[in-house]
Amino acid sequence: MRETDSVAAYYLRVMTHALQSRPARLAALLTEVGIDPALLEQPRARVPGSAFAALWLMQIRELHDEFFQLDSHGLPPGAFALICRGLIQEPNLEKALRQCLNNFGLFLRDLRASLSVRGKRAVISLQSQGADPLRAHYAEETLLVLVISLLCWLGGRRIPIDRAEFRHARLSLDDDALLWGGNLSWNAGRTEIEFASRLLRLPVVQDLASLKVFLRSAPQWLVIRFRNQHGLTTQVHQRLRGSHYSQWPTLEAFASELQMSPSTLRRRLEREGGSYQEIKDEVRRNVAVDLLRRSSASIGEIAELTGFQEPSAFHRAFKKWIGESPGRYRARFSPVGPG
Known about the structure:
This protein has 339 residues and is α+β, with helices and mostly antiparallel strands. The chain is built from 16 helices and seven strands.
């Protein structure tokens, strides 16, 4: 945990939705943890991670619910720890994820999550019900953040998301891509996320000893860890996105830019749940997705911009990443774009 850890103020709205009808109490809680209540109206502003974590714990005590009353039943205090204890007994991430979704389903009444594996793709789908669309919107996002963050912790690494779709609309945030990947759609009519099914074969690397340490700061710091805008992973993302693929530095060169040793860079990235090569692959995929969705560049040009010598190699890689060809993917977003 570093002083630079932060999250978007948007998540204050999510966490405090149940107190919107009690503005005086809400303002008092925010002030107590050092957050200006005016930030509720500035969703893109940044909130210090320490204040966010303190508010998270305070909200649980205030509402007697670890899910912030975003569900008609919710999570009673202690439920999150109980769920985690069951997961570390599983041999791999697939069994742990299925158990995780089942365990949340034992408590939450308005949300149902399911995992389907379709060849090389794994998809988590959510179904929600309830009279308050905004609460359902917040509940879906919160549950998926918790599930994916837990999956990252269990596997000891970031799990790159290849596709994320949410049924509701919301504003875009600077750190959305870090959590949800570049292939992100709001107001999509359904809520599901997709990633490579091979990741489900990874072993669960946590045990009872690491769980005890983890629960001292989870889930409030777990969530921050995997969407921290100021972490080293984000610095690597920004450095790579800001230059042409041919100019991407080696790990050794990037470590030199940061005035640290290559071993320190590797170790710090591992602590944030990833590796330099994994981030390079993720950025390469996100650049391709972004260009297909938002530019008029030809597929051949996009192949060159993302480091492929032949368009055919780009086609094969993109289909492996996303599950469909570049042309078919582009047609869903910009049907008039060149092929």
